[in-house]
Design goal:
Blueprint lengths: L1 H16 L32 H12 L2 E6 L2 E6 L2 H10 L6 E2 L6 H4 L3 H4 L2 H17 L7 H18 L8 H16 L9 H17 L2 H13 L5 H26 L8 H11 L10 H32 L1 H14 L15 H14 L8 E2 L4 E3 L2 E3 L4 E4 L1 H5 L42 H18 E4 L13 E2 L3 E2 L6 E4 L4
Parallel strand pairs: 2-7
Antiparallel strand pairs: 1-2, 3-4, 4-7, 5-6, 8-11, 9-10
Helix pairs in contact: 7-8, 7-17, 8-13, 9-11, 11-13, 13-14, 13-15, 13-17
Subcellular location: Endoplasmic reticulum membrane; Microsome membrane
Cofactor: heme
GO molecular function, one term: heme binding
């Protein structure tokens, strides 16, 4: 802590010696608090995290305002209407990707999530097409998830109702789905290398969402020379990349051009096809960082939502009971849940929507940039301006959700009990940069959540009214608090 305070003091002293004011950017940015030279709006930043600061500034400046994160201006866009106007109505202009300082040394503008321009368009098209093929017609997504859900049920049965942290189970099952697409295989739940990889991903997500990582976002050019969470994040992701690199080599050695097994095979074939093109985006760096992007996002997002979901089931047992009744009525106990069941299970679907809304996984969105000089709500955002679509401001928009701070599946049900669409529901973001795994994640959430609750009741020694839902961390991501849960086999009819 003393080291942290010393670094902060040093930053302040440097700022004092810099000229007052800030470089005027071309254009006409939205209003915001006056920044200090170099230090930006550090004085307006809440020590509990940037999100609280942005929410307070919104009260003063409205839905669109500018904050200086260190020396650079970032435009904050809040509220359902403003976010939709930017990311949907002006989708192309707002389709650039900004940087997240703590992971920038790893990605450096490569891979499907953090790339821009033609590189991004090429990698996104390839990734979407290959994920749709999903084993190139051998087995459907649904069958893979159903099989993995049964493996998860067997693992939970082995626990014999013991009290435990569910993180490992949800990580393993969701990771195995993306692994089957990308690496062409699933891993045994006790595989030591697999468990190490999952722990690296979990610890990295926690570190990225921590307050030191948020502070690093302001002063990365300076703080990168000092110890901190950014170094651990780099080390963790390099270890994951080393695993991916070894897997790519094994794929090369066993590649059958007439029978590609997974995304890596498909990519290697495309690399070979374009080897004479010096400008091809199909090279090793994009391969490893696209696989890292899919592996990380495909594991953390769904498993974290499931983890929050089951904590909510412990907190609200009457909701769990109603889900059990719907499962028994629609599916029964003698067959596994299928995707076709979702249309007949509006309450379950509403619960999963509300889990995603309440869990608020990426509250500040992943940073965007504008791809050209852009007029927006009377302001002129110069090309390259960073934009944060504050997704939590839509997911908690009181004009769209009657009581946004409460967990209530009725937010997604109409008067007849049918599922209703809500324009403020954007947990995967919206527009051209919407999460490319949205369809996969929605399928996983339904099949995993329904299969577990078909087979188990959940219990905790903590009384429902004493269960605390306060996140462990809120930054780039929202990390639910750790908790213990029992999975108790239900009586089969």
């Amino acid at each position: 802590m003393m080291m942290f305070s010393a670094i902060l003091l040093l930053i302040v002293l440097i700022g004092v010696f810099l000229l007052w004011g800030h470089p005027s950017s071309q254009g006409h940015l939205p209003p915001g608090p006056r920044p200090l030279p170099f230090l930006g709006n550090i004085l307006q930043m809440d020590r509990k995290g940037f999100l609280k600061s942005f929410q307070a500034l919104r009260e003063r400046y409205g839905d669109v305002f500018t904050v200086y994160l260190g020396p650079r201006p970032v435009v904050m866009i809040c509220g359902t209407e403003a976010i939709r106007e930017a990311l949907v109505d002006q989708a192309e202009a707002f389709s650039g990707r900004g940087k997240i300082a703590v992971v920038e040394p790893i990605f450096q503008g490569y891979g499907v999530i953090f790339s821009n321009g033609e590189r991004w368009k090429t990698l996104r098209r390839f990734s979407l097409a290959t994920m749709r093929d999903f084993g190139l017609g051998k087995r459907s997504v649904e069958e893979r998830i159903q099989e993995e859900a049964q493996c998860l049920v067997e693992e939970l049965r082995k626990s014999q109702g013991a009290l435990q942290d569910p993180t490992y189970y949800f990580h393993s099952s969701t990771a195995n789905i993306i692994c089957s697409i990308v690496f062409g295989k699933r891993f045994a739940y006790r595989d030591p290398e697999f468990l190490q990889l999952l722990d690296l991903l979990f610890q990295t997500f926690l570190l990225i969402s921590s307050f030191p990582s948020q502070l690093f976002e302001l002063y990365s050019a300076f703080l990168k020379y000092f110890p901190g969470s950014h170094r651990q994040i780099y080390k963790n992701l390099q270890q994951v990349n080393a695993f991916i690199g070894r897997s790519v080599e094994k794929h090369r050695e066993t590649l059958d051009p007439s029978d590609p097994r997974d995304l890596i095979d498909s990519y290697l074939l495309r690399m070979d096809k374009e080897k004479s093109n010096p400008n091809s985006e199909f090279h090793e760096q994009n391969l490893i960082l696209t696989v890292l992007s899919l592996f990380f996002a495909g594991t953390e997002t769904t498993s974290t939502t499931l983890r929050y979901g089951f904590l909510l089931m412990l907190k609200y047992p009457h909701i769990t009971e109603r889900i059990h009744k719907e499962i028994d009525r629609v599916i029964g106990s003698h067959r596994p849940p299928a995707l076709d069941d979702r249309a007949k299970m509006p309450y379950m679907d509403a619960v999963i929507h509300e889990m995603q809304r309440f869990g608020d996984l990426i509250p500040m969105g992943v940073p965007h940039t504008v791809t050209k000089d852009t007029h927006f709500r009377g302001y002129l955002l110069p090309k390259g301006t960073e934009v944060y679509p504050i997704l939590t401001s839509a997911l908690h928009d009181p004009r769209y959700f009657e009581n946004p701070e409460a967990f209530n599946p009725d937010h997604f049900l109409d008067a007849t009990g049918a599922l209703k669409k809500n324009d403020a529901f954007m947990p995967f973001s919206i527009g051209k940069r919407i999460c490319l795994g949205e369809g996969l994640a929605r399928t996983e959430l339904f099949l995993f959540f329904t299969t577990i609750l078909q087979n188990f009741s959940v219990a905790s020694p903590v009384a429902p009214e004493d269960i605390d839902l306060t996140p462990q961390a809120v930054g780039v991501g929202t990390v639910p608090p750790p908790y213990q849960i029992q999975f108790l086999p239900r009586q089969r009819g």
